[in-house]
Write the structure tokens for this entry.
Amino acid sequence: MVRFLLDPMVKGGIRVSQKEERLPYASVWGDTVKLEHLAVSTVLGVVLTMAFYSFGLSFFSRNPGIKPDLAKGYAMMVGVVGCIISCVTAAILFKPKRVIVEKAEHAELPEILNAAGMTLEEERQALESIDAQTATELSELGLKDFLSGNVRG
């Protein structure tokens, strides 16, 4: 599922320059991506995967000791190697655009909740309906009081 985001500064917590701010972003599998990078990565993946597969098929098909079905299987494994190489290449070329905040101040809570599409009251209601294990984990991390708005800092 791909959803277009109108304001990348708010949705997905990504930092962009003013020039990049006009470019379209999309949400894919819960991550915010730049459509240009997604397209280049997809083409790179298809090209490298098929090139490696074609090379593997040609190489293994020429060997008379390998059955044709087995040659296709080996070629598919070589194609998977091409796919992995394309993933690593795309990860190197296109760095994440997220900003990770390790510590947030209480004054930033309304802004954080607004970016998540919630109000403070909605967050308090959501925290009341969580299971005990999640509540314990949030408390251990010091997030339950913070998210409920009970801590001043």
User: Anything to note?
Assistant: The chain has two domains: 2-93, 106-148. The helical segments are 18-21, 35-61, 68-93, 109-115, 120-128, 132-140, 143-148.
